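Appendix B. Chain record.
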Amino acid sequence: MVRRLRRTKKNQKYDYNRNRKRLNIKDRLNGRVKCPEIRKEYDQNKVPAKNIREMGLAYNVNRAIPIPNVKRQMKLMERELNNAKPPPAAVATEDGDGSDPEEATAVPVVAKETVKKTRKPAPKQHVADQMEQEANEFNGIRYRLPRPQVRQIMMMVDRYGFDYAAMAKDRRNYEQETWRQFRAKVRRFLRIPAQCTPYLERKGWLDCDMTDATDPRWKEYGTDDEA
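Structure tokens predicted for this chain:
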């Protein structure tokens, strides 16, 4: 009896438009490390976990910084308290006889302190130190607004100044945003120097004090703090 082929297997056809050589090379590759510091010191002959450990970094964050187990901590505290508690003192009888002096002078049992082994410094510790230094040096704003949104903000400010109520009534307000949303957008735009500096230079507002409420150019019309 001839064995029947499954419908899915029967209908499979070879795709001649696929570059099998390129796909096989792509499958064999482990991917590209995006961090330049790690990529420079990465050894292809070692597994990723060992590579990361040698650089002084944590491969598994859940093992490096585990979630505290409250139940286990309570059990350890109870065990330490029970071991450190002194034995009950001997109660003297009416005749003045005390208990056994050896029992009275018993020394409480103290748990042995586990001596932690000192870890050897990572052979490529400079990678972690360099990454930490770069992270501490940058204190600016990484967030940037999309280009279409920046163009919309510049167009609205050119047309209406800081009159947010007029911006909300503009016919190009396709998203039907309120004047408060426009105000938040403009304020965020002015807090990103990389995006607002060229615009302020073109307007001649770079050296102006925007916090001056008496200047009519910076008076924000339609805001809550309007007198």
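Further analysis of this model is presented in Appendix C.
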